[in-house]
């Protein structure tokens, strides 16, 4: 197994040398770049997943909540959508350091001392705001008859949301949610500023040691690859999940 | 609490004036980038709308690349890459020449490239929303090409493009914070300097966030006014 991998790696490097890339540099940093991609994917995957969990109650608070609750949810999403992610990340990462004693007292310091956790935390709060707006739009675009019919059938409101409303809202929001995923991949590069070695972080490290612009080219290709794959997968997903909505093409 | 507010005072003991300067630089950067980005966007939109297959492919490639790359990466490529490229070019002319790229210019170019990619999509949709007959009618009335654009096509295109462009502007405003990473003394950078000295990160970054919120609030007022003005000759569905 080891020898096969080594042979594959050699072959890859030979190929890269063939198109004029710096193979020495790639041999030294190539695996670190793959680690960086993995960290980026973890960062985005975790944040977007946790973001959905937060976005559903936020969207419901906007639609169903009383005055106070919907106002609060509105303020939340206004804040996170109106300020730069970089500022939010600094607020959490450096702000947590300031409250170290209090955080230790309530037993949360171990979480916030790690830059990766802070990045996931901030990105989750941020993407939840955007996702909740998408979901709210989806819910509000449904005709009132959907809920009325569900209730006429004796479904409770909770059950109606789970079985009737939310699935349709998700279907409507599928495309914007895919865009949000792509935006998160791009935005995750900000984590490198608070010392997370994601793809961008690894790239900056490699550049600061080698002063070879080529590493930025590798990063560009890897980011574009990730974004394109997500776009393609999402297109397939959308066609499959929304096939009942398809108009004759 | 009072101590914290004192930190925001103007003058030698407070950071109010430094942060205000940073905020002004942020606005300046966004305002300078806007025409650059829209110009690029218009050029790319026209390329994508053209009958030449090559031009269309170039336009599509441009949008794919600059919409797909993280803004931070584009910024680094423009800043460091521009520096190396210009130094190499200058070195070919004068032995041992070294060129420093101005950070502000690098910021404008990088953000302009990104804005160009996003606004080209908006502008393309707007160009296609104006029916061909409008142009033909203007031509039949004897209007020149430029006057047709200024008096007939543009006002209609503008109305369709405004909501999308307003979105682009909001994103641009937030993206300007990234230039603080290459040491431009914008709002974000000045805030970080204040934090370094005062050790009050939570307070200062919160203040910075609130300033960004004020900017986007003001922008949306301006854009609502512009949109109302642009659609004054247009009756909305169920509208007023």
From TrEMBL, chain A:
Location in the cell: Cell inner membrane; Cell membrane
Membrane topology, from the record: Multi-pass membrane protein
Swiss-Prot/TrEMBL keywords: Cell inner membrane, Cell membrane, Membrane, Transmembrane, Transmembrane helix, Transport
Subcellular location, principal: membrane
Pfam families per the UniProt record, alphabetical: BPD_transp_1
Gene3D superfamilies reported for this sequence: MetI-like
Entry protein name: Polar amino acid transport system permease protein
UniProtKB/TrEMBL annotation, chain B:
Keyword Metal-binding part of the UniProt annotation: no
Superkingdom field: Bacteria
CDD domains in the record: TM_PBP2
SUPFAM superfamilies according to UniProt: MetI-like
Subcellular location: Cell inner membrane; Cell membrane
Gene3D superfamilies for the chain: MetI-like (1.10.3720.10)
The keyword rRNA-binding is assigned to this record: no
Matching InterPro entries: AA_ABC_transptr_permease_3TM, ABC_transp_permease_HisMQ, MetI-like, MetI-like_sf
Record keywords: Cell inner membrane, Cell membrane, Membrane, Transmembrane, Transmembrane helix, Transport
Residue ranges crossing the lipid bilayer per the database entry: 20-47, 101-127, 203-226
ABC transmembrane type-1 domain sequence ranges: 23-223
Membrane topology: Multi-pass membrane protein
Signal peptide boundaries: none
Membership in a protein family: Belongs to the binding-protein-dependent transport system permease family. HisMQ subfamily.
Name of the protein this chain belongs to: Polar amino acid transport system permease protein
Native source species: Ancylobacter polymorphus
């Amino acid at each position: 197994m080891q020898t096969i991998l080594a042979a594959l790696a050699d072959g890859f490097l030979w190929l890269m040398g063939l198109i004029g890339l710096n193979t020495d540099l790639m041999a030294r940093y190539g695996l670190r770049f793959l680690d960086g991609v993995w960290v980026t994917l973890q960062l985005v995957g975790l944040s977007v997943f946790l973001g959905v969990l937060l976005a559903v109650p936020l969207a419901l608070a906007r639609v169903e909540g009383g005055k106070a609750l919907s106002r609060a949810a509105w303020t939340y999403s206004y804040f996170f959508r109106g300020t730069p992610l970089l500022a939010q990340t600094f607020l959490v990462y450096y702000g947590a350091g300031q409250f170290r004693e209090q955080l230790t007292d309530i037993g949360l310091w171990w979480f916030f001392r790690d830059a990766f956790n802070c990045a996931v935390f901030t990105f989750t709060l941020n993407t939840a705001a955007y996702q909740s707006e998408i979901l709210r739009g989806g819910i509000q675009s449904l005709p009132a008859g959907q809920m009325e019919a569900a209730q006429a059938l004796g479904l409770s409101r909770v059950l109606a949301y789970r079985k009737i409303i939310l699935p349709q809202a998700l279907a409507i929001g599928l495309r914007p949610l895919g865009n949000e995923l792509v935006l998160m991949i791009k935005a995750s590069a900000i984590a490198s500023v608070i010392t997370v070695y994601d793809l961008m972080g690894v790239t900056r490290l490699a550049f600061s040691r080698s002063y070879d612009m080529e590493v930025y080219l590798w990063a560009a290709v890897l980011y574009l690859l990730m974004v394109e794959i997500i776009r393609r997968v999402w297109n397939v997903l959308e066609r499959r999940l929304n096939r009942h909505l398809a108009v004759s093409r | 609490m009072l101590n914290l507010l004192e930190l925001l005072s103007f003058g030698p003991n407070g950071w109010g004036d430094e942060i205000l300067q940073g905020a002004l630089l942020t606005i300046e950067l966004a305002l300078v980038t806007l025409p650059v980005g829209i110009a690029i966007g218009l050029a790319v939109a026209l390329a994508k709308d053209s009958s030449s297959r090559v031009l269309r492919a170039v336009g599509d490639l441009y949008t794919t690349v600059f919409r797909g790359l993280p803004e931070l990466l584009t910024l680094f490529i423009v800043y460091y890459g521009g520096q190396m490229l210009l130094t190499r070019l200058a070195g070919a002319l004068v032995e041992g020449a070294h060129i420093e790229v101005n950070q502000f210019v690098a910021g404008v170019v990088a953000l302009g490239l990104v804005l160009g990619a996003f606004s080209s999509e908006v502008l393309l949709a707007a160009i296609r929303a104006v029916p061909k007959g409008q142009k033909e009618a203007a031509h039949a009335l004897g209007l020149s090409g430029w006057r047709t654009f200024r008096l007939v096509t543009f006002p209609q295109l503008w109305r369709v493009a405004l909501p999308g462009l307003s979105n682009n502007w909001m994103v641009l405003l937030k993206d300007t914070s990234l230039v603080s990473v290459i040491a431009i003394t914008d709002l974000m950078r000045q805030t970080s300097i204040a934090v370094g000295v005062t050790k009050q990160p939570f307070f200062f970054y919160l203040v910075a966030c609130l300033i960004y919120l004020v900017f986007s609030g003001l922008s949306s007022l301006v854009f609502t006014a512009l949109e109302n003005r642009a659609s004054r000759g247009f009756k909305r569905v169920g509208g007023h």
